[in-house]
């Protein structure tokens, strides 16, 4: 156990509520609390057992009562931070909560930095970095499945895979170094063969994890689905119809670009972030017109593009241009307004037939088909929670670097003379994988990760 000072912060969100919790963690947690706590019937905290509670009052230096509280004590290492931890449950008012925090600080604790409790859990070795990051993912989860996958990650599902890969890597490195150090054994060629095979297996595993990252991003953020198409084809009508029929999870996400509308919806547990371009402009009663450039940017960001066309208007140059941007993406083409006379020849665009859906959004025809196709396109319509998904972009980037190093290593192994070079690349891969669990990460990067956390966590 490392030695740290004792920190304190309000762990609940600040505002009116049933209760607030002030968390105190560190060697002096109990000593500090004793100074400001008066138990019912003068019962002292001296012999408090771990995982028990006491009822009483927090008092200021003059002995004036500040609030009626319940204190719980968790003795390290069996606590969130792995340190002695006190939690003070008080009434959930802003003033009492702050007053109690002030007394705790006055009695000798330091105000915690954002994420510092979780950082302690990491520095004390109770959890690794990927587990710590999952803690914040649980708090920020926007959908049920992102919360569920974050919880799995907090239990170490990624760490386990990474640690196994790193152990295998160390094994290969050891055998190569033994060969380099004792060349008289003349085992070199055999070792290079075995090392190549083992390295290829590890590369395969890294690729498998990387492949899960696309779906992992979706688990975390939802399927970013962008509606594109010329003005008046029916994009907003489609968005509104889907929203009406489906439970909206979050509405009106603030802080996004002013001229797009974002909505979270839930298709059988798969979160979908629907983005309609230029929504605001419509409400401002200005002719809706998204430039092709703007559409291109939206398409770039999307996991799925819904390209809406109007059956009663011929395909024109703008449609063709938009379609060129969509082609390399996951897309569906919605031919809308089939209740009107057909003026369009869809064969002017080179579209796979399975991607075309005909609708009359106004007449509520074909909407279910859109939903069904989206479900089929992602996770095969169903999420398998026993699979490991890489949901964190930082992890993905580290895996990409590890993959590069593995490639170099395998190249080097194919030239027997370069076997010692391969061991350098394998060490690089081992280090990059360790960035995920935090074993091989520089302190300032670790600090930056925890600085993103909320206060009191
Ligand atoms: P956007 O500019 O692409 O967002 O298009 P809107 O959703 O605002 O729709 C433009 C117009 O087309 C509105 O008057 C809608 O009522 C109408 N509209 C939408 N879907 C259909 C449809 O399936 N059939 C017909 N006839 N009109 C539709
Ligand atoms: Zn619109």
What would you note in describing this structure?
The chain is 46% helix and 19% strand. It is built from 15 helices and 14 strands. The chain is flat and about 85 Å long. It has 457 residues and is α/β, with parallel strands linked by helices. Zinc ion (ZN) is lined by residues 235-236, 276, 282, 288. Residues 222-379 form the TrmE-type G domain. It is found in: Cytoplasm.
Secondary structure blueprint with pairings:
Layout: E1 7-10, E2 17-25, H1 29-36, E3 37-39, E4 52-59, E5 65-74, E6 85-92, H2 94-106, E7 110-111, H3 116-123, H4 129-140, H5 144-154, H6 157-181, H7 188-221, E8 223-228, H8 235-245, E9 248-251, E10 260-267, E11 270-277, H9 279-283, H10 292-301, E12 304-310, H11 317-326, E13 331-336, E14 356-358, H12 367-377, H13 393-414, H14 419-437, H15 443-451
Parallel strand pairs: 1-7, 8-11, 8-12, 12-13, 13-14
Antiparallel strand pairs: 1-2, 2-6, 3-4, 4-5, 5-6, 9-10, 10-11
Helix pairs in contact: 4-5, 6-7, 6-14, 7-13, 10-11, 13-14
The structure holds guanosine-5'-diphosphate and zinc ion.
In short:
It is built from 15 helices and 14 strands. The protein is α/β, with parallel strands linked by helices and 457 residues long. The structure holds guanosine-5'-diphosphate and zinc ion (ZN).
């Amino acid at each position: 156990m490392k030695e740290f000072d004792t920190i304190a912060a309000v762990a609940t969100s600040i505002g009116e509520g049933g209760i607030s919790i002030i968390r105190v963690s560190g060697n002096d947690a109990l000593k500090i609390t004793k100074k400001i706590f008066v138990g019912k019937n003068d019962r002292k905290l001296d012999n408090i057992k771990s995982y028990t509670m006491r009822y009483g009052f927090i008092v200021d230096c003059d002995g004036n009562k500040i609030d009626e509280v319940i204190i719980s004590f968790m003795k390290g290492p069996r606590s969130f931070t792995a340190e002695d931890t006190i939690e003070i449950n008080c009434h959930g008012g802003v003033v009492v909560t702050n007053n109690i925090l002030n007394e705790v600080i006055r009695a000798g604790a330091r105000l915690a930095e954002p994420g510092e409790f979780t950082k302690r859990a990491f520095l004390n070795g109770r959890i690794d970095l990927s587990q710590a990051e999952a803690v914040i993912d649980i708090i920020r989860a926007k959908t049920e499945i992102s919360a569920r996958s974050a919880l799995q990650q907090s239990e170490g599902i990624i760490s386990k895979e990474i640690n196994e890969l790193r152990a295998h890597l160390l094994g290969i490195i050891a055998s190569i170094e033994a060969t380099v150090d004792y060349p008289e054994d003349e085992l070199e060629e055999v070792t290079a063969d075995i090392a190549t095979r083992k390295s290829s297996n590890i590369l395969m595993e890294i690729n498998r994890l990387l492949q899960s990252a696309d779906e992992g991003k979706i688990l975390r953020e939802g399927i970013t689905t962008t509606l594109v198409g010329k003005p008046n084809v029916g994009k907003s009508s489609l968005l509104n119809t889907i929203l009406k029929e489906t439970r909206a999870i979050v509405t009106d996400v603030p802080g996004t670009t002013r001229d797009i509308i974002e909505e979270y919806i839930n298709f059988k547990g798969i979160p979908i972030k629907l983005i309609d371009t230029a929504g605001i402009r419509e409400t401002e009663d200005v002719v809706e017109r998204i430039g092709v450039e703007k559409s291109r940017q939206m398409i770039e960001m999307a996991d799925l593009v819904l390209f809406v066309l109007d059956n009663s208007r011929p395909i024109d140059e703008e449609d063709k241009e938009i379609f060129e941007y969509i082609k390399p993406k996951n897309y569906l083409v919605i031919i809308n307004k089939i209740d009107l006379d057909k003026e369009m020849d869809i064969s002017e665009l080179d579209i796979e037939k399975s991607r075309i859906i005909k609708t009359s959004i106004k007449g509520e025809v074909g909407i279910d088909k859109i939903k069904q196709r989206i479900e089929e396109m992602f996770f095969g319509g169903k999420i398998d929670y026993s699979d490991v998904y890489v949901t964190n972009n930082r992890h993905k980037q580290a895996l990409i670097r590890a993959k590069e190093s593995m490639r170099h290593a395998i190249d080097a192994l194919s030239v027997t003379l370069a076997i010692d070079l391969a061991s350098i690349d394998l060490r690089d891969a081992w280090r990059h994988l360790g960035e995920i669990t935090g074993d091989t990460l520089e302190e300032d990067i670790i600090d930056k990760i925890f600085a993103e956390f909320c206060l009191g966590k």
